Records
---
Amino acid sequence: MDMIVTPTGRLNGEIQALSSKNYTTRYLLVSALAEGTSTILYPAHSEDGEAMRRCIRDLGAIVEEDDEKIVITGFGRHPRPTKELDVGNAGAVLRFIMSVAALLPEVHFVNSYPASLGKRPHDDLITALESMGVRIEHQNGRLPMTIRGGQPRGGKIQVSGSVSSQFLSSLLFLTPLLDEDSEIEVLHDLKSKVVVGQTLEVLEQAGIVIEASEDLMHFRVPGRQKYKAQTYTVQGDYPGSAAILAAAAVTESDVVVHRLKEDSKQGERAVVDVLKAMNVPLTHENGIVHIRGNGKLTAGEFDGDEFTDGVLAMVAAAVFADGISRFYNVENLRYKECDRITDYLTELRKAGARVDEKRDEIIVHGRPEGVEGGVEIDAHYDHRVIMALTIVGLRSARPIRIKDAHHVAKSYPIYFDHLKSLGAQVEWTD
């Protein structure tokens, strides 16, 4: 389905931040890797979460849920043999489950989204798993893929972090279960270090001991550990909330978002500081962000690697800032559901934004007067692109139509409901 976004000058109201997708998927996984029963309170409902639940069920976990919690009886280090897994369009779920699948003799991963996840490379994780004695058949590093494992070996393991931190996180979930102690060395650079911090936080909560160097480039992981069955409470989601906060920043607004912890380890917490630096009037106290937007923003320069999943929303805000904004250190955006630099900027230009790109930068020439709009836009099946383009539509002179906007459900199924409750003029259309 498509979404028509009509220019909206004012947003008002309060919402509860969506629960964190990243924490929910990690809690689902560590609960499955535990022996015994775990409870996850306030889980996020998203296509990624659905994909993880489907996969751990197929691997032998018992999953029961209602509106407020998920109860999981795990399989420990002995997943149930299964011939085939379908992760949908969820890259993180694929990468995490690849390591779990290495505990089994043979698992085939299907390619359900050849135009999106099917294009994304996983070579760095494949190379690391192969060094541990796992055999993998793949299509030039991409899906479909067959993993033949059974007895992966610990020991000295190297993994590149230059494309995605998810490869490292995947190995951190697996190695505590192996018979041998492991040393993991990260090669080259490590993208999205803050997300590795979330993985380490969840592993610690699950009773796993890992020694990490301060720069997160070296890890010592004792083997023969067991995940403990626990109760987990999911915190509010900064990446999704970034789009709501940006929408409030570019309009006349009085918007309150609850459940956003000031001391969260989510890197996207930095979007609050980005908006402050752009002179958006806001406060952040007691887990509540309150924006009294006036639509006036000042350009700035920002290290996007600190808030990877919030960059597109902040770029959308910068479209209306006074001056030239620069988001640097963002090359890993090219390896997401789409190329979130070239593909996204192509669509922004259609709407009338003035934007340029380098290999690892997005440059925005702000237009405080707004953009023309009046176009149909292709969001490339990417939930983050859909949310960000909506922000631009709120300040366009004429409505924009976002194709296939229902893919927002990958991370934020009620995004448009939340915007509508704040007064945004958004309508579904076939």
---
Amino acid sequence: MTGHGLGLADPKRENALLVGIIEAISAGPELGPLAANVAGLISEATATDVCFVHVLDDTGESLVLTGATPPFDREVGRIRLPIGEGVSGWVASHREPVVITDHKEDDPRYRYFPQLRGRDYTSMLSVPMASSPGGFVGILNVHTRDRRAFTDRDVRLLTSIGSLVAGAMHQARLHRRLAARERALERFAEQIIAAQEVERRRLASDIHDGIAQRLFSLRFHLDAAADALADDADFTAEQLVHARRLTGLTLDEARAAINDLRPPVLDDLGLADALTSLARSIAAVEVTVDVEECSLPDHVEIALYRIAQEALQNVVKHARATQVRLELHADGAEMSLRVFDDGCGFDTGAAPPGNQNGNGYGMGSMAERAELVGGRLEVWSHPDHGTTVIAKVPSR
């Protein structure tokens, strides 16, 4: 039995196939689903028994089966065809179509790949998939069990389809690479923040265990000396009092340095209780706290704590508020930190009070902290209607 061509002499069927291909291309940027949809559409529309979509891998040295009609769809991702080997490899290296009507084994370009069961099929048409912007991206093959006489028109049609698909695959590959680069940048940012936190912890520990402990001991001895000499050595006692005062100042500075490196309260209490403690330390305004326990990476916890700290400091410095509310809740795959105040507010389209460069209220540093951990900062405010600062970060 002999068939003739792809069976698309009817322009309506040809147009229907092209429309289907365009819809498949428009469905999304994922390479696998696109190749699978294209293979199914071509096989059904052309009444061929199987369609393979082989895509050039990132090395440019082999073709990977990326889309296929059943039963070969289970082989997707498993079959690699070296460039230059077999009919598909020849098409890939020469960028020219190949038509084999029968007796494939007699063609010097043919190579038998057991997984593809080529001996079950008599005729084949193989065309390169290439486009102007993206160049060569792969091979499109159709096979039939019965003998099929593919025409020049069939070759042009399948090559045109290959060009359409090639442009979409080029965009899909760019999308995949961009997504991979973004993931790499996110991991890099996390690694940098994690390394910073490790170093901050080490420095904080060194200051606490070394400088601070020695200063505590020094202050104890100075207190004892001052008590002993207070009655009979006025000058010595005065100097000791002065030294004790300087020691106290140094201790305060050491504690501040430790807190700036990494708030010890985070290690002692966890984020939720640390935020509660932070709110209680704000004496100038009443802060209502509504936070839930959560388990977040260290670099995310420190970012949220610092954002809350900055937001509360801004309220005290600028807002003239009487009521503040601090919230921390899970919101799907995100954690949301919210700080509301009933203060004077400001026009978000203009520079905040006290800064004419648009970065007042520490908005720039808070936004940067949120972005470094893969999150974002939102600020809602209006004159005389208070301010809301919202930081949303990934919860895992």
---
Amino acid sequence: MAGTDPRPYLTEVDYPCGRDELLRAAAAAGAGDDVLGPLGALPASDYADGDGVWDALGTHEGSTTT
């Protein structure tokens, strides 16, 4: 993902959780479209932690997460 790191918007998430919970938590934390769009495009699976979300976004977007 070449965009915004979503982890600061996911501090209230109880992991593991699915994409819908990630979207709810990020929206409640005030995330913008630059975060919500990529989260919404993730596969509907369970994510173990914020780093797993970041990794999935990098894999999903086909770019590096540096």
